[in-house]
From TrEMBL:
Entry keyword annotation includes Iron-sulfur: yes
Annotated organism of origin: Thiorhodococcus minor
Full protein name: Radical SAM protein
InterPro entries tied to this protein: Aldolase_TIM (IPR013785), Radical_SAM_PqqE_MftC-like (IPR050377), rSAM (IPR007197), rSAM_sf (IPR058240)
Coiled coil (residue ranges): none
UniProtKB keywords: Iron, Iron-sulfur, Metal-binding, S-adenosyl-L-methionine
GO molecular function, one term: iron-sulfur cluster binding
Organism superkingdom: Bacteria
CDD domains associated with the record: Radical_SAM (cd01335)
Organism classification: Bacteria, Pseudomonadati, Pseudomonadota, Gammaproteobacteria, Chromatiales
Cofactor: [4Fe-4S] cluster
Length: 422
């Protein structure tokens, strides 16, 4: 048994072991720990009230409920916490320390437990051309066309599990629309049969069999949107609002019957046009459908364009149009990222495997030229892949402007309450 697993099992024999984070990463860790017979007390999650009390058969508690009850508890009986958040690991660790818990003795960080995460971009196409996405300005022939077969996915998963025993969840998207894959249900089912839970993301514009997809039980679905009606169609270019709305209602209904525990996160991009009344109407819709709305300031998704801008090149026209609509401007986003440049790059921990099994240097860059470290993931050991990635020139250029913190900086901003009343 893996050394950390053995330690956790010994700890859980005498102390309540909680996983902080009931999202994709937390559920993946839960799957691995349960698969190895490690008893768990449950999940801690800020959104406990929205999670109907239980996830994967375990209770979900608001973190302060556990942290505020530590007085007088002997150290041998204190809760032990496994942090299951990639983006907010440092913030959660800080909160645990403030509550009097110590690293190693009382909690373990996500990066120590799971040094590598994976994204498998099983589909190399998308049906939309969102203004902020590089797909809006790149020709479809730019090496991004194709789909990973089920057979290849099986081989990829075999290698992932052989090299990274703590992987219990996989993201099946990066620059593609996974619901377009005709074998998505089989891929999700196969992963689940190996103890790996899948996260998918969708723009919900494709007319596909959502019942078949949800029946395969993906664990997490992110739905991306940006406004209401015409505003949505402007930034989610080529998207059709009525079709999106119809599929949103359909998926919400299907979840109730097919997979009630599946987490659905509506990832709502805040632009100038999507705040105020649009956001309020969308919130009301999510309340009606029982969906979790996650508003986040929109940003230019591809770091290729942002790095080009920093290095003095003009933004492609769609990205320029998107930048004009940003609620938090590109300049403000860059300044926030630059302030955080002392932080390390978490993205280096994520290995992005494209549909053709090539491995990206960085999942946040779209263009494959200069961003491919291995032509085939299947033929190169993980250790070698990571060594190549850690030595790449792209990272030097990127960190010079703090761009390794660019997306995370937007994710950390919380202008939501102001936006709602704008
Ligand atoms: S942002 Fe997502 S949905 Fe929009 S074009 Fe890019 S990949 Fe497609
Ligand atoms: S430093 Fe930049 S290019 Fe390198 S992995 Fe991090 S985000 Fe990507």
């Amino acid at each position: 048994m893996h050394g950390v697993l053995a330690e956790l099992r010994a700890t859980a024999a005498t102390r309540p072991l909680w996983i902080w984070g009931a999202g994709n990463q937390g559920r993946g860790i839960c799957s691995v720990l349960q698969g190895h017979g490690v008893p768990l007390a449950g999940f801690l999650d800020q959104a406990a009230d929205r999670l109907a009390g239980r996830v994967m058969g375990l209770p979900v508690a608001e973190p302060s409920r556990v942290l505020n009850a530590l007085d007088g508890v002997a150290s041998s009986q204190r809760p032990f916490v496994v942090i299951a958040s990639w983006f907010f690991e440092a913030e959660i660790a800080q909160r645990l320390r403030a509550a009097g818990l110590g690293e190693h003795d009382d909690f373990i960080g996500y990066s120590r437990l799971k040094p590598v995460d994976y994204s498998v971009d099983i589909v190399g196409v998308c049906n939309l051309k969102c203004l902020a996405c590089p797909r809006a300005s790149r020709a479809p022939s730019d090496g991004k066309l194709g789909m990973m077969s089920l057979e290849t996915f099986r081989l990829v998963l075999d290698k992932i599990l052989a090299e990274s025993p703590f992987v219990g969840n996989l993201q099946l998207y990066q620059w593609g629309e996974p619901v377009l894959h005709p074998q998505l249900p089989e891929i999700v089912e196969h992963a689940r049969s190996r103890g790996v839970l899948c996260a998918i993301s969708s723009n919900l514009n494709a007319d596909v069999d959502y019942a078949r997809i949800l029946s395969a039980r993906p664990e997490w679905l992110r739905i991306s949107t940006s406004g209401w009606g015409e505003g949505y169609e402007m930034t989610h270019a080529r998207g059709r609002w009525p079709r999106f709305l119809e599929h949103l209602r359909e998926v919400a209904t299907l979840r109730r019957t097919l997979h009630p525990e599946m987490k659905i996160e509506v990832y709502y991009h805040l632009y100038k046009h999507s705040v105020g009344d649009s956001l309020a109407r969308f919130q009301a819709l999510c309340d009606e459908l029982g969906l979790e709305l996650h508003p986040i300031p929109a940003y230019l998704i591809s770091l290729d364009d942002v790095l080009g801008y920093c290095e003095g090149r003009p933004l492609p026209e769609p990205a320029r149009q998107a930048a004009e609509q940003l609620l938090v401007s590109l300049e403000d986003g860059l300044a926030a990222a630059y302030r955080e440049r002392h932080r390390g790059c978490d993205v280096l921990r994520c290995v992005n495997i494209n549909w053709d099994t090539s491995v990206s240097q960085c999942m946040l860059y779209y263009d494959s030229v200069g961003n491919t470290v291995a032509p085939s993931y299947l033929e190169i050991p993980l250790e070698r892949i990571q060594a190549l990635r850690h030595a790449a020139d792209l990272c030097r250029r990127c960190t010079r402007y703090g761009l390794h913190q660019y997306c995370a900086s937007y994710a950390r901003m919380e202008p939501v309450s102001e936006a709602a009343s704008a």
